């Protein structure tokens, strides 16, 4: 086998298609769009535009899938349908076995006892295992008193409950809207920065950053640190200090309370869940929901062999290759080396181009 792709999310599918177009034999294992199907609420809406897609060749794009339909914002189910359509059009069949171990020799061992040896492996594990959990939450609260958005996608158990959400990202406010709409008694959102502006996001600047990444090998990593930080701050501005306008009316409800510029100062789970905020106010709740995002730590990807890491992040060369020759890691774990735009679907086609070219050179 020339190329084994572990993971069938956007990055895995995009790279698999690019490799196949270069005439390489490709085997894809995993559950198609698993994180999107299992770890995102069914009624979730996407922030991305119709120009974010999976086909580096520009043929089987999202816009080609929806044709003349106007779908804005994009429901998650629609994008999953697009990914399925893309895989079918590209002739990608996904082997649903689970990889239990990948040797440094690039032999993958499956849960059914079988194995596959490959010349090159692309490991695209997604982000489910990278959820950030503040230590104080696990220490102070019982397991049933808290959860992370990664595992909270069915809100039936929280109907009639008082929910305290910690976090200021898109997920914090969208989960607040969904919880309120699903019948939560009250939803508090505690976040350290100002309440974001609800205005249409302009992601147009991402296109030029991705184009520069394709033009100049190792471009982002070669930038002076202040320039890298400036790019990250721009993503912070658009991605965190601005949220989509369609969210505003959904959280403008009597049972949704926002607590900007605050954080939890004290937390107790003895009896009722109680939190004292940094402004001195106190919140009594039935459940704490962490919308604290994700941070790559490749030690949590149980099947990976030992690779060189930097504070949990994979050390990658300009082709996304790890310290083990022939093993590549795209997607969210690559953002430290390639820039924050590779944590979004927008980076999938650029990644597929770079890795596809590297695979065809080797």
SSE map:
Elements: E1 3-6, H1 10-21, E2 26-29, H2 34-38, E3 45-46, H3 62-66, E4 74-75, H4 76-89, E5 94-95, E6 99-102, E7 107-110, E8 115-117, E9 120-123, H5 135-140, E10 146-148, E11 162-166, H6 170-181, E12 186-190, E13 197-198, H7 205-215, H8 219-222, H9 225-239, E14 242-243, H10 248-251, E15 256-259, E16 264-268, E17 273-277, E18 282-285, E19 287-290, E20 309-310, E21 313-314, E22 327-328, H11 335-338, H12 348-361
Parallel strand pairs: 1-2, 1-9, 2-5, 9-22, 10-19, 11-12, 11-19, 12-15, 13-14
Antiparallel strand pairs: 3-4, 6-7, 7-8, 16-17, 17-18, 20-21
Helix pairs in contact: 1-12
Give an overview in words.
This protein is α/β, with parallel strands linked by helices. It folds into two domains: 3-130 and 294-361, FAD/NAD(P)-binding domain (3-Layer(bba) Sandwich), CATH 3.50.50.60; 135-199 and 244-290, 3-Layer(bba) Sandwich (FAD/NAD(P)-binding domain), CATH 3.50.50. The protein has twelve helices and 22 strands. The protein has helices at 10-21, 34-38, 62-66, 76-89, 135-140, 170-181, 205-215, 219-222, 225-239, 248-251, 335-338, 348-361; strands at residues 3-6, 26-29, 45-46, 74-75, 94-95, 99-102, 107-110, 115-117, 120-123, 146-148, 162-166, 186-190, 197-198, 242-243, 256-259, 264-268, 273-277, 282-285, 287-290, 309-310, 313-314, 327-328. The strands form seven sheets. A five-stranded parallel beta sheet has the order 5-2-1-9-22, with helices on one face. The protein has a five-stranded parallel beta sheet with strand order 10-19-11-12-15, covered by helices on one side. Strands 6-7-8 form a three-stranded antiparallel beta sheet, with no helix packed on it. Helix 1 (10-21) crosses helix 12.
């Amino acid at each position: 086998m020339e190329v084994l792709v572990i993971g069938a999310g956007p990055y895995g599918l995009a790279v698999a298609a690019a490799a196949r177009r270069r005439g390489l034999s490709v085997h894809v294992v995993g559950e198609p769009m698993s994180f999107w199907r299992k770890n995102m609420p069914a009624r979730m809406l996407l922030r991305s535009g119709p120009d974010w897609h999976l086909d580096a060749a520009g043929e089987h794009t999202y816009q080609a899938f929806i044709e003349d339909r106007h779908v804005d914002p994009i429901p998650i189910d629609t994008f999953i349908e697009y990914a399925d359509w893309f895989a079918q059009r590209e002739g990608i069949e996904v082997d649903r076995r689970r990889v239990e171990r990948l040797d440094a020799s690039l032999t993958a061992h499956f849960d059914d006892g079988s194995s596959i040896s490959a010349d090159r492996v692309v490991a695209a594990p997604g982000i489910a295992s990278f959820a950030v959990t503040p230590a104080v939450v696990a220490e102070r609260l019982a397991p049933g008193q808290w959860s992370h958005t990664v595992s909270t996608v069915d809100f039936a158990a929280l109907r009639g409950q008082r929910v305290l959400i910690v976090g200021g990202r898109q997920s914090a406010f969208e989960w607040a809207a969904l919880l309120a709409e699903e019948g939560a008694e009250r939803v508090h959102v505690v976040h350290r920065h100002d309440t974001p502006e609800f205005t249409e996001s302009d992601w147009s600047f991402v296109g030029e950053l991705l184009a520069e990444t394709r033009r100049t090998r190792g471009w982002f990593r070669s930038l002076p640190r202040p320039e890298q930080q400036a790019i990250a701050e721009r993503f912070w501005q658009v991605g965190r200090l601005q949220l989509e306008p369609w969210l505003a009316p959904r959280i403008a409800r009597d049972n949704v309370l926002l607590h900007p510029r605050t954080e939890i100062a004290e937390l107790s789970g003895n009896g009722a869940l109680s939190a004292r905020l940094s402004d001195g106010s106190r919140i009594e709740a039935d459940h704490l929901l962490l919308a604290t995002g994700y941070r790559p730590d490749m030690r949590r990807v149980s099947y990976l062999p030992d690779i060189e890491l930097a504070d949990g992040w994979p050390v990658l060369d300009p082709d996304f290759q790890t310290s083990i020759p022939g093993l590549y890691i795209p997607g969210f774990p690559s953002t430290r080396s390639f820039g924050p735009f590779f944590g979004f679907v927008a980076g999938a086609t650029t990644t597929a181009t770079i890795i596809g070219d590297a695979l065809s050179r080797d």
